[in-house]
Write a structure and sequence with these properties.
mainly alpha
């Protein structure tokens, strides 16, 4: 019967460094995915708030069009003296 040398279970400096880098990459990736999910949620909420019809509050400010813009949102569209095309 032949005895084999025990396998060294200690991590060398290089393998420990690679393991630490991989752990940091995993944590960084998880953090990025969490932030992306939060950003997606915030963007979806902002878009849905923007397209949702506002409640009629009796306030004229909710129905006014900003200066220089038309109801379609194109700057300068519908000004007198311009050709419509």
């Amino acid at each position: 019967m032949r005895l084999e040398a025990p396998i060294c279970r200690h991590r060398t400096g290089l393998f420990r460094l690679i393991g630490d880098v991989m752990d940091d990459v995993k944590l960084f990736t998880d953090d990025c995915l969490d932030r992306a999910a939060g950003l997606e949620h915030d963007l979806r909420r902002a878009v849905s708030d923007a397209v949702r019809p506002e409640k009629n509050t009796g306030n004229k400010a909710a129905t006014t069009v900003p200066a220089g813009r038309t109801a379609t949102g194109r700057p300068g569209a519908g000004k007198p003296g311009r050709a419509v095309g």
